[in-house]
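Entry 12.
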Amino acid sequence: MPSVRRAVLAVLSAWHGLAAVKNVCDLCAEFDLVPNAAAFGSKNFPAIERLLAPLHLPREAIGVMLAGVVAMESAIALAFARGDDETAFALGIVLFGSFALVDEAMVDYELDETHRGILMLLLTVYLVTRHERP
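Predicted 3D structure (tokens):
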């Protein structure tokens, strides 16, 4: 029978995996690679465009950034699924901590609130579920 700890970590794995898939759908829709992919997208591509608009970045640069996020989310999901919780939590904390820093730098406190909330969730789950090492 699975433990509550493993169940929570499985949900985090599925959540990060789903986020990765939804971001891939965003990329496919934004660059006209898959018809109707936008229906399943995360809407993160336009959010990044709005956030970074003052920097006047080309769409391809935003695409590369979102592809990097997909890679991180996929690695996090895989690490949780394989039971490598330390790596998964470290990557998740780096990812959402980075988002919070960018939000702060770009003075977007609405996104910052969301990213800080997810960061706090990851930190809390880490503290509650971690195993003490002898």
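Annotation: Residues 98 and 115 are 9 Å apart (CA to CA). Residues 4-128 form one domain.
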